[in-house]
Amino acid sequence: MAAENTSAAASGHVQPEIDVPALTEVLDGEYAGIRDLVRANLVTHASVLEEAEELGVDAFRERVRDLVVAMAATGQTGMGFPREYGGGGDIGASIAAFETLAFGDLSVLVKVGVQFGLFGGAILHLGTERHHAAYLPDLITGKLMGCFAMTETGHGSNVQALGTVARYDAAAQEFVITTRGDQARKDYIGNAARHAELAVVFAQLEVAGRSEGVHAFVVPVRVDGEVAPGVRIEDDGRKMGLNGVDNGRIRFDGVRVPREALLNRFADVTPEGVYESSIDNPHRRFFTMLGTLVQGRVCVGGAGVNVAKVALAIATKYAVRRRQFEAASDGEEQLLLDYGLHQRRLLPLVARTYALHFAQDVVRTQLHEVFSATEDDAPARRRLEARAAGTKALGTWHATRVVQECREACGGAGYLAVNRFAALKADSDIFTTFEGDNHVLLQLVAKGLLTHYASEFEDLDQLGLVRHVTGLAVETVIEKASVHKMLERVRDLLPGGDDWDQEAGLLDSEYQLAMLRYREEHMLAGLARRLKRGIDRKRNPGVVFSQVQDHVIALAHAHVERLVLEAFVDKVRSLPGSGNKAALGLLCDLFALSTIEADRAWFMEHGRLTVQRSKAISREVNALCRKVRPLAVDLVDAWGVPAEMLRAPDLVG
Amino acid sequence: MAAENTSAAASGHVQPEIDVPALTEVLDGEYAGIRDLVRANLVTHASVLEEAEELGVDAFRERVRDLVVAMAATGQTGMGFPREYGGGGDIGASIAAFETLAFGDLSVLVKVGVQFGLFGGAILHLGTERHHAAYLPDLITGKLMGCFAMTETGHGSNVQALGTVARYDAAAQEFVITTRGDQARKDYIGNAARHAELAVVFAQLEVAGRSEGVHAFVVPVRVDGEVAPGVRIEDDGRKMGLNGVDNGRIRFDGVRVPREALLNRFADVTPEGVYESSIDNPHRRFFTMLGTLVQGRVCVGGAGVNVAKVALAIATKYAVRRRQFEAASDGEEQLLLDYGLHQRRLLPLVARTYALHFAQDVVRTQLHEVFSATEDDAPARRRLEARAAGTKALGTWHATRVVQECREACGGAGYLAVNRFAALKADSDIFTTFEGDNHVLLQLVAKGLLTHYASEFEDLDQLGLVRHVTGLAVETVIEKASVHKMLERVRDLLPGGDDWDQEAGLLDSEYQLAMLRYREEHMLAGLARRLKRGIDRKRNPGVVFSQVQDHVIALAHAHVERLVLEAFVDKVRSLPGSGNKAALGLLCDLFALSTIEADRAWFMEHGRLTVQRSKAISREVNALCRKVRPLAVDLVDAWGVPAEMLRAPDLVG
């Protein structure tokens, strides 16, 4: 094998060498400090990985709570809150800390997300100073635990249709919170079954008999450890994973809270019962409120990418230890990673993990800038929301796929709990659903792209068609340029005219980018055409939408993949010349070409790939896998997953 | 929606109606009786689904053992053994019983597989009358528990490389069993950690200093509940799933067993120490021994298909209850299954499940015939082995994919343990690995197809190249005809000459079959060419093989999919005209076209699909989904999964 591997060098390829610590610096970026703090905390508390198996549900929930409080004391979990209340005042650092925490037990991660991201985030972003002063200091330390009561049994993604009601009683100057029917009970609420004292409850606000839409209220659900009067809490019981998080169901039977319990940053009710808001349009008001919660999606997407790193680190290290079947020549069995198939299974996933890591850097930076700015930049906020939705979907699906592939690549050993995949798989499974179902999120992304067409196809909004595309967040234009202009822009990218892409080198990143841009923009124009045709024919908009829904998802997917590739290419270009730059260049090519390869049918169907070129891409992916193979261990080591988090003594020890 | 749905009828399509009990009869076939017995037993013991969550590992293992013994008493688990020892004397029925058991808790299923399939099967097929008389009566009742000690820590798929040694001591007329090094310890062995009294141990037989290859021995591992002297047993501990099965590791430190402990159907050692076998070629002898164990693969493949049925039944029923987002017209939220995307996610999987069900019927029948025959039919046995390997791989990957898609399609509710997916996912995960890793099995399938080339490329065997394709079972020719003849045969299938397939109706099953046959045979010829080219260039065979390994897997996959489609088409054709036949016809079209669609890039690359036709296939898949949508609940009901096995009160109740 060795002789054959070096033969690649003869053909002009110089095998790069990786400087692992330097590559870790590139990956950790400006947040190396907080990431190292989290790594150290993970190692300190590494026993939780075994405790997750050994303890019963009740004991494990308490253990996870204690761990969350212990980590809070190090400052790790409070980075996103203002300094005056005991936080770290650095939103980007809070995301980086959360991402890094995903190397460890995921119940701890999710409990941190519930307490500081969802509950704390709602108090911070939807509340005003009176709420901040009252709650932030104690919630940052974990002394005050809370939950985020949005989802209902009958309403997950469609938040505008929630059934819980908060009626204002002007005489008492109180809100009366009521669960109307079983479908309206709050469900799957983390921290609800056991630890939350307060809940941020999302409910339809009724003032003077008039519905003002969904608003958030602070409602005590436990007093001195006992469930509060009028509140009923059920335990959601055992789950596929994350059994250290106490999910539960909450019903409210006319629970009264004072007028000040309304989180009133965007809307308020006067003592006399007059509804007031700085945002006139109720639809826009709703999405503005929800939009402040985008941080959860950015966090979960990044956590998904880091879950993938843990799985790939184990599978890669195993594949350079484990031998199976003889090589013909010498009688020794061959290492798994020297098989072409095994390279094909793991290495494009390593490349995609790097790509998603750098894409996560971009969205984290956007989030940090939007939320650190003193003035609101609405278009930047919309861009962030769409991007967060898209990277969350791709990052979490990637985690599910990678964990499965890596478990299978470790065979029977991968099935033993001690070897980590059991927890990784069970705990991360829900990532594709919570903080927004991935399919709904991609429709949200597509809506952002389509909304631009509203002026051309004004019937779209009249028929309520765009509402079908999603009920969530992004409501305005994502891209300023018209699609026709975009297509021209793509042509501008092809230096040799319209046929350039059929001649360009496969390893030319301009070619790779042009391919993904063309796909996205062609899909956008095609989808708009289909929608318009349906409307022109006066068809039922629900049916029209249902029939193009696969195109909607494909468009969003193409859009996000283009953003991911741009992030990777930009990153590689920004690095000074070095072995690391060369290695990342190989990896970026592998990501780009394996992405094009996976959708090569579409490119052929749309005249962007000849049969010959399509086959050449598959050959090049194989060739890139062989070039990346000698770098594989360094590439996974550079992620800096603490050895204690890999566990897996039989696989990597 | 209703008005739009019936508009399909206006275009000539008559929506069929399904007779559910009659369709269940078609599915259950000749084994309706044993399947209903198993269904009844599952319902009787339905509480095990909750106990799997509630009991600790030790208690659950005992509970599962008790259940296995209780089921054995009904005759359900002994169908495959001869009547004279207390069995049912019907091998096909034993497979059908096992498949049906997969509707329930999978620890019970796997423990049944270990005890009666692996341990009992080894005694039956590798032993002779002395072993049958000594062990079968008690193992059939479950009084005598045993384990199947083949896999070692360092050797899974490559059984010929096992490290355990059985040396014959002629003076004592005993075999001495020894574990040579950590990599040779038996590992992941079901029943080993707790319940097995006997082990069938696979070890390298040494007689008079000469190695005779791997043979099987009956070795007591526990005596009166205590681990036997010289035997060391460790517990494999908690696993991702199947925690009702006590997997463990076994080491042997010079354990002595009498000469009669050798399972001597195919080879024996005389008291004086002379090795004798009715099969001269050691390679052939090894594969003949292993080949008798093919039943395990047939069982696991069928179990995978039935796991998929449970998941799809839950997700389909949920999708016709759950509403999400408003339809534009009437203010009521729309059912999930009326969304085009949701149809796309679930209905092709329903179609593939039916296809794999009927393919399983074929392989089960082949198994029954081969093992019920009074004379050995070697070619039939080889065909069976290849087919079993292929359907096992596709059936178990299907299970993994379906369970994941269905969990996601049930959102957060799908994550709660009470809703079944937690156990389905964790327990079935290992199906892709045990009884042969799926990738290794597909290489085995490909080897069968390739071996035919050996006469043309005789260097293949000299270079040991074929050995790389797999170390397992099939060793001789699968197909008699040469590839060139096969290609001619395909052309004969195209009535209008070579271009017929570009004009034929997409819903013509001859067209669909011709496409899958063409793909397979083109891949076979192409792979043989690549291998020959590598050999002609005197390249390292290991490297040549590594570089074509993705083609090897693709070929095998194409081969098995062709067999699956043939089974489905044959089944539909065999039915009398009825609504059921029409419904299965739609489903068969959906399976065929979604299969072609998934690989449409290949068909375009190889000139078998124009761009226009490729797009037409995607449109037709969408249209078929809409036609199947009204039949979906009947289609999943016809599988006859007992309601108690669906559990999921919130999703289907």
From TrEMBL, chains A, B:
Residues 511-649 form the Acyl-CoA oxidase C-terminal domain. Coiled coil: none annotated. Its cofactor is FAD. Gene3D superfamilies: Acyl-CoA dehydrogenase/oxidase, N-terminal domain, Butyryl-CoA Dehydrogenase, subunit A, domain 2, Butyryl-CoA Dehydrogenase, subunit A, domain 3. Keywords: FAD, Flavoprotein, Oxidoreductase. Residues 147-255 form the Acyl-CoA oxidase/dehydrogenase middle domain. InterPro entries: ACOX_C_alpha1 (IPR055060), Acyl-CoA_Oxase/DH_mid-dom (IPR006091), Acyl-CoA_Oxase/DH_mid-dom_sf (IPR046373), Acyl-CoA_oxidase (IPR012258), Acyl-CoA_oxidase_C (IPR002655), AcylCo_DH-like_C (IPR036250), AcylCoA_DH/ox_N (IPR013786), AcylCoA_DH/ox_N_sf (IPR037069). The keyword Oxidoreductase applies. It comes from the Bacteria. Residues 34-143 form the Acyl-CoA dehydrogenase/oxidase N-terminal domain. The keyword Glycoprotein does not apply. Residues 291-450 form the Acyl-CoA oxidase C-alpha1 domain. Belongs to the acyl-CoA oxidase family. This is Acyl-CoA dehydrogenase family protein. It comes from Streptomyces chilikensis.
